[in-house]
UniProtKB/TrEMBL annotation:
Domain of life: Archaea
Acyl-CoA dehydrogenase/oxidase N-terminal domain residues: 11-120
UniProt cross-references to PROSITE patterns, sorted A to Z: ACYL_COA_DH_1 (PS00072)
Pfam family, one: Acyl-CoA_dh_1
Species per Swiss-Prot/TrEMBL record: Halocatena pleomorpha
A single GO molecular function term of this UniProt record: acyl-CoA dehydrogenase activity
Record domain Acyl-CoA oxidase/dehydrogenase middle: where: 126-222
Signal peptide start-end: none
Protein name, entry field: Acyl-CoA dehydrogenase
Coiled-coil regions listed in the entry: none
UniProt similarity note: Belongs to the acyl-CoA dehydrogenase family.
Domain (Acyl-CoA dehydrogenase/oxidase C-terminal) ranges: 234-379
């Protein structure tokens, strides 16, 4: 069964999709269950992904990357997540936020911080969410106070991918206090993780995407030079909003990969299991369930790829990205739920692929903006 076929993938993205498929088959699938069980950081798979030229390669060629565009990134996301979402997240997060630096940083910042990520000598992360605020981007409390030629950082961040492992993170922090324009109060900074006053520890064990690691970071009078600010003071919210439009297309790809995994697992199970003297795939209700899963999957995939083109062309990006993210990630939850039902009691055996998928699908409906927030965006940005 070939669910992630090439028919919706533009020609220029097909070679890297094939490369990601081969990598996922050889390097991710054989170790996925073990990493899920142990919850360890998959350094060896990350390094293999770097050797294969699949990590951090959306960074432009002039800075040492392969310059993948959004459609190439989506193609990779589908393939990696079909094999395993936790490992897929680790590979895709190694350069999370670096695109912001590429689009808005100075040449000096890019040479110092972006190039080592593109060349796979360093990894990074994006620190936005906090213990008390995730959805409300204009409600974050971590502050960056200017003192002479430095910014002094104080506050906490939570859920930050690679917060422990990264060499530097892109930090979103409050630089203003204007109640009339809450959105203009935030700025973005490059923060090397070895700066005094930066402390990070892993958050407690997760039930999903266990081969990825997130951190609780505290900033305690952490001082960084003014030159580490990305873009103008007060531009952070707007830069982030634009960045998330790209990210949400890729997160749609996370959902599509997971949905494909759920359908494959369910399809193969029902053709290999008997009840009442026949194959359970012969029951019409089972066939209808699978038909529904496939239909929803194809609808989500068509939307997601259409949205990728829209975002790439900057046509109502917020609207299309939010729709793609919502539809694809919720198709994944639906397919996983139905796939579990079709597996009967065996669905809850922890070594089953469907059980891993069932847990992992809980994440993309939340990260990069919970789907309720996406619905707010779809409504408010609907072209009229
Ligand atoms: C595995 C994982 C990895 C992550 N990685 C990162 C990372 O690398 N960097 C980073 O900065 N963050 C990261 N996050 C955080 C993620 O972006 C937030 O969890 C997400 O934005 C939701 O924020 P919250 O958890 O604080 O939920 P809250 O904001 O507390 O919201 C809780 C719930 O309230 C409802 N809700 C909230 N606001 C609204 C609204 N306006 N309208 C309707 N309903 C609403 C929704 O149901 C929502 O799920 C990660 C999260 C996970 C789970």
């Amino acid at each position: 069964m070939e669910l992630l076929d090439d028919s919706v993938v533009p020609e220029h993205a097909q070679p890297v999709k094939q490369q990601a498929r081969e990598f996922a088959t050889e390097e991710i699938e054989p170790v996925a269950e073990e990493y899920f069980r142990s919850g360890e950081y998959p350094w060896d798979v990350l390094e293999a992904g770097m050797d294969a030229g699949l990590v951090a390669q959306d960074i432009g060629e002039e800075y040492g990357g392969r310059g993948f565009d959004l459609q190439q990134l989506l193609a990779i996301a589908e393939e990696l997540y079909r094999a395993d979402a936790g490992i897929g997240l680790t590979l895709m997060l190694a350069s999370f936020g670096a695109e912001i630096l590429e689009d808005h940083g100075t040449e000096q910042q890019k040479e110092e911080f972006l190039r080592p990520v593109a060349e796979n000598d360093q990894i990074t992360g994006l620190a936005v969410s906090e213990p008390e605020s995730g959805s409300d981007l204009a409600g974050m409390r971590t502050t960056a106070t200017k003192e002479g030629d430095e910014y002094v950082l104080n506050g906490e961040k939570y859920w930050i991918g690679n917060g422990v492992e990264a060499d530097w993170v892109t930090l979103y922090a409050k630089t203003g206090d204007n109640e009339q324009n809450r959105y203009g109060n935030y700025s973005l900074f490059i923060v090397p993780t070895d700066t005094a006053g930066y402390e990070a520890e892993h958050i407690p064990e997760k039930m999903a995407m266990r081969a990825s690691k997130q951190a609780h970071i505290t900033f305690d009078d952490c001082r960084i030079p003014v030159e580490n600010r990305i873009g103008a003071e007060g531009s952070g919210f707007y830069i982030l909003a634009e960045f998330f439009n790209h990210g949400r297309i890729a997160v749609g790809g996370h959902g599509l990969g997971l949905a494909a995994a759920a359908i494959e697992a369910a399809w193969s199970f029902v053709h290999d299991r008997e009840a009442f003297g026949r194959d359970i795939s012969e029951f019409q209700s089972v066939q209808h369930t699978l038909a529904e899963m496939r239909t929803e999957f194809e609808a989500a995939r068509a939307l997601n790829w259409r949205a990728a083109r829209k975002v790439e062309n900057r046509e109502q990006s917020g609207f299309w990205a939010a729709m793609a993210k919502t539809k694809s990630t919720e198709t994944a939850t639906m397919c996983a739920e139905q796939g579990m039902q079709l597996h009967g009691g065996r669905s809850i055996l922890t070594d089953r692929r469907i059980a891993r998928v069932y847990r992992d699908v809980r994440v993309p409906v939340i990260y990069e903006g919970a789907n309720e927030v996406q619905r707010n965006l779809i409504y408010s940005q609907s072209p009229t």
